[in-house]
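Protocol step 4 of 5: obtain the predicted structure for the target chain.
Materials: sequence only (see below). No template structures provided, no constraints applied. The aim of this step is simply to have a reference model before the mutagenesis design in step 5. Sequence pasted as it appears in the construct record:
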Amino acid sequence: MRHTISVLVENKFGVLARISTLFAARGFNIDSLAVGETEDPAISRMTIVVKGDDCILEQVTKQLNKLVDVIKVNEFNDIEYVERGNCLVKVSLSRSNRNEIMHMVEIFRSKIIDISQNFVIVEVTGSEDKISAFIRKVMPYGIKEMCRTGVIALGRGHNIIKVSK
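Step 4 output (structure tokens):
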């Protein structure tokens, strides 16, 4: 089962290492990890995506809550949320495929952020499925380089995960 977890942590050196070690020690491979400052510069939000058994994940969540630098842990399983990823894809460009690639960018509501005679760099933002579908569609043209971010997520509406002050 796929789990998306939001972890609010103190914005300090070494926190990421302690949390990733906790997952590794329990046999979880982190499929996606994104970390960034929140609206409060003293706090960072980690969005972690893992696949695994519910019981083991519950133990990991309990262990996360015991770490000194962890402020709050929430798994997005019982609330509605929005998640997005980002990807930069450098695709081979030629006279013969230029229009097809431009059309693909338009269909996926993506953005060309750099173009040269032989390559185009496309930014794709959206769900993991959308990004994967775009990659599959342009793969026949030749992907020269690619970089994906981790998933970021926030609860919809009043589903706010933040520290009460």
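Step 4 remarks: Strands lie at 2-10, 30-37, 43-51, 70-75, 81-92, 111-115, 119-126, 143-148, 152-155. The helical segments are 15-25, 54-66, 98-107, 128-138.
Proceed to step 5.
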